Every structure is written in structure tokens, then in C-alpha cells.
């Protein structure tokens, strides 16, 4: 079937509009970097996000119009929405029946943990009641359950925990409803094309965001065409590739961004490559949007930002927005809080495997996660999860047959704001390059802190998930198994020297239901971390001096250019010395 002829002019409009934006992006990004670099280095949770100015305000309508035509995005519907274009705040009785049936009466509780015995008791109680453990750190654990089951849970806990909790989300169903971007549950004008789909996404505007794609979370049906568009527009340094096929037959799409040398070489060295992945767990939407934001930032900065151009000449970046397309689609069409893939298990009514527990290194299927109904079920054997197996096969094929050397792996998750390095499976086994992992991990956290003021903790993936009093002893009680993780497998089996799991915003106020206003700020701080990651691999260790030099080179002359020198003075040599001293002190402390 041929596409309508109207598609061609719309695509041409989109090509022109996005090309204009690609030219303009470095200006606004430079302003944003300049703004971020001059902030205080302490955490400022109430800090307002920087709003980049629109250099060509009269042309953004062209871009938005073209995107709406190409992706068939419905026009914003103002009626019934608030001034930000988000969904109204309904009462529980006004929520869709399907949502009420699944999550009506559910709450999310945070338990503050202070002793190993408390963590042990909470882990066993969650196991007994088959509860959904949202997230956990050294100090707290967030658990979803029905409000009616709270007394049963408290009855299994020691007295010290029976009052050591707070209710993060008293009405989970309403919070889920409001997290969907412009969803029309009952509007016939936006009815799904298939009767079995419960949700239909639509894009609406958001204050302070110039790119329509990042104004809201996007479904896979929008992300994939967007990726194709990037590959077709920026052919010099972008290719769309396929990692493999999912359990339900979908492709696992990725963008390879980089500029390989054109001149033939006698002894051609393997191409150094960095993988940035998101969406291993389907409900972690912010990880998916952040990977696309990093991709867009790298793509549009090439040839305009000397620092990014250098990185793309030295490295290829493989960006995988979601390693779990089946699960991600399911969160849009059926269950917003679905975590696993959609693979059939031995129990017909309990589908799905945890992709991040399915890799072959130190796989663990002996704990309570051996129950197929567990949110962390790793399968009956290593690599039973189809998508984990496909990713591993692709990575091995790249190194064996395609001249690739993987030097970095960044696996984005949510939530809790942590930078975690190997090992995940054990708190007593130290990786051979522990000091290098710690140094770069603290550098990534520092890069985020300087750019946005957000605090990210740094620890091994095991220590980040257990009590600090338990970790050194080996007597570890965890909320879930740490074996079979992606970062451990890439580090140990693929010899990726720098392998990290980065848990993005927030620290629990919204959890997996992070509002859309956080998409761009989270993307910006992650992009700054990626720039630091690349600079570190190139041998550069001073983030502040690199940032100032980058701004100085990339900011074009315009009416406010004279302010740059004044702003640079705020990031001086003393800051660099303080930064290096802080890292050295932390490394010495950890050695003790």
C-alpha cells in the first residue's frame, strides 16, 4: 500500500525544521551549560530548571507542525487540562475501571532501615506476601501493596519497623493515571486503533521545552520512527541497527553514533565502542527518554561542539533506548508498572523474566526469585530471557566478527540517584580494577552535581542494595538477588573496563512515575555524565576546566557573549583543586 502523497511534503518540512534546530541546538545548550556551571556545588533540590531561550522562535511552529504530520500526533486538546497541558486531577471514582481494578486501593510505603535484622525481616516479609519491592538502598526500601494488606505486613515485622515507615503514594491509581502523557481513556476522538489497547499517547506542550519529542514520554510507536529519522537525516555519523528480536517478535532498535576513519589502515585497530542502554525494566520510562536525549545531544552536537566531535571521532556510541520493547509496549497498553519482559514461564498466569537478572555471570536462581511470579524472576537457567540472550549474542558477534572493542557500558535505570559499579552479585568479591571504577564513578556523580545540583551516590551495585553494616561481613540479606546482572556480565565476560548502572531521578517522591517536567533536566545531567565518561577515557580528568574550555569554544558571538568571561571566573583553578582533592580523599577513605 502506498503512503499518501501528503507524507512527502510533511517529511520535507520536518527535514528542514529539524535541520534548523540542529544548527540552533549548540547555542541553547551552551547557554544551559554556562548556567549550570555557575551554580553552587551543593545540592539544591528546589532549584528551578534552566529554560533555554529559543534562538529562532518563529520557526519552532514549523518543526512541531511537521512532527505532528509525520508521526500523526493529535493536536493538543486544551479542554479539561491544566495550564501545563497535563491531565486533570480526577477523583478516584472518575478513574478508568481497568486502572481501578488493578491498582485501586494500592499504596507505596517507604521503610527506613537502620539494622541488618530489620532488612532481613523486611526481605522475608516481602517474600512471604509476594510484594512488589520498588526500590531499595542502604537506608530505605519502597514497597507497593494493597492498603488492606498493610496490617499483615506490619504483623511480620519487628516493632522497630512497625512505625518506621511513611506513605509515599496514598492513592497509587490516581498517580499512575496522571503519569500518562495526555492519555484519553474515554475520549472517542483519540480512541485506539486496536480494541485491545487501553492507552493512546498524544503529545502536548510543556513549558520551557523547545523540542516537541522531549515534552512528554513517548511510546515505542513514536520512538522507532524518530530513530529512523535521525539515521536518515544525519547519515555522516548515525546508523540505525537491530540488536535482535524479542520474545514477541519485535526488533530491539539502536542507534550507532560515531565517525570511523575514512583512510584505510594496514593494522586497523578495533573500533572503541560505548554502549548506553535503557528500559531493561519496562516501567522505568525515564531511562528510555534519557537514552534518546543523550542520542539527540550527541547527534546534533557533532561538527559544532569540538568536545563532542572529538568523542565521536574516537568512539562509537551504541544507544539502545529500550532493551525490553515487549515490556515497554505493555506498560503503555495494559499495565504502567509492568517490570519484566513478556516471556511465558512455567506458570501460565505469571509471565515475564527479569532481564537484568538473566545474564550468565554468577546467575542466581536459588533464592525466592525462583518463583515465576516474582518481579525479579531470572528464569530457570542463564540467558533464558530472550532479550538478554540477544544482547549478549550481539555483543559477542561485534567483538568476534565486526572489529569492535567495547570500552564502556552505561545501563540506565530508575530510581534512587546512584552510580553503581561491579560487582552486583557479591559484596565481598572486589573487581580487579576497583580503584578505577570508583574514581570514574565519583567523577560521573560530580559531573551531575555540578550540572544540576542533584546528588548521586556512588557504590558497588551490591553495596548500593544492602545495609552498609552488612556489606563488609558477607552475611548479606537482600531484597532481591544480585546475580546475573548486565554490568557484571559485560565487565567480567566481555572485559568492558568501565561498566556502570546509573539509577536516575528521583529519590522516591514519584519513583517510576516521574513527571514529564523531569525529562529534559534528567537528560541534561546524564548527557553531562556521558561527556565526562568520554573525556575520562580520553585521559582528561578535570571536568570543570574541560567544561569552561568547551563553552568558550562552542558559544557563538551574540549579544550576551561578553558575559562568558565573567561566568568562567566562577569555575577557577581552586575549584579544580578542590574536586581532585575530594576524589582523592574519598578513595583513601574507602581503602581504609
Structural summary, described in words:
The chain has helices at residues 7-37, 60-70, 97-103, 116-129, 150-155, 159-162, 172-179, 220-233, 285-301, 306-314, 325-333, 386-401, 434-452, 486-492, 519-537, 543-554, 563-568, 573-591; strands spanning 106-112, 132-136, 140-146, 165-169, 238-245, 251-257, 271-277, 316-320, 404-414, 418-421, 457-460, 498-504. The chain has 592 residues and is of the alpha/beta class. It folds into two domains: 97-179, Metallocarboxypeptidase-like (Alpha-Beta Plaits, 2-Layer Sandwich); 212-553, Zn peptidases (Aminopeptidase, 3-Layer(aba) Sandwich). Strand 2 (132-136) and strand 3 form a beta hairpin. Helix 1 (7-37) packs across helix 2 and helix 9 (285-301) crosses helix 15 (519-537). InterPro entries: CARBOXYPEPT_ZN_1, Peptidase_M14. Residues 216-537 form the Peptidase M14 domain.
Produce a short descriptive summary.
Helices cover 39% and strands 13% of the residues. The protein is an alpha/beta fold and 592 residues long.
